[in-house]
């Protein structure tokens, strides 16, 4: 347990930050799942629309250093290639 006032405040801040980051990470995962569901349904137009929103969410999370930029790029690349593979 934190003893000083500063340490108690830091613990509160860390807890709040952890909850916010977990929320953002969850939002990103949900947006990725929506793209995958659209791909599995075979609807390319819907997949493209959802992918546009998902890539925005992924970029936002990466800009806040919740995930690494390379991880964001990897997610976006794999989703884009899966959508592109639907056409053929």
Question: Could you outline the blueprint of secondary structure elements for this entry?
Answer:
Elements: H1 5-41, H2 44-63, H3 69-87
Helix pairs in contact: 1-2, 1-3, 2-3
Plain-language structure description:
- This protein is mainly alpha-helical and 88 residues long.
- It contains three helices and no strands.
- Helix 1 packs antiparallel against helix 2.
- The protein is elongated.
- Binds directly to 16S ribosomal RNA.
- Keywords: Ribonucleoprotein, Ribosomal protein, RNA-binding, rRNA-binding.
Summarize it:
The protein is 86% helix and 0% strand. The chain has three helices and no strands.
How many domains make up the 3D coordinates?
A: 1
- Number of DSSP-assigned strands: 0
CATH superfamily label: Ribosomal protein S20
Largest sheet: none
Give the averaged pLDDT, no decimals: 96
- Give the termini distance in whole angstroms: 59 Å
Report the CATH topology name: Methane Monooxygenase Hydroxylase, Chain G, domain 1
H/I helix tally: 3
Unreliable stretches (pLDDT < 50, length at least 5) are none
Which CATH class is shown? Mainly Alpha
What coarse outline follows from CA principal-axis ratios? elongated
By helix and strand content, what is the structural category?
Answer: mainly alpha
Can you give the helix content as a percent range?
over 70%
Keywords: Ribonucleoprotein, Ribosomal protein, RNA-binding, rRNA-binding
Function: Binds directly to 16S ribosomal RNA.
Family: Belongs to the bacterial ribosomal protein bS20 family.
Protein name: Small ribosomal subunit protein bS20
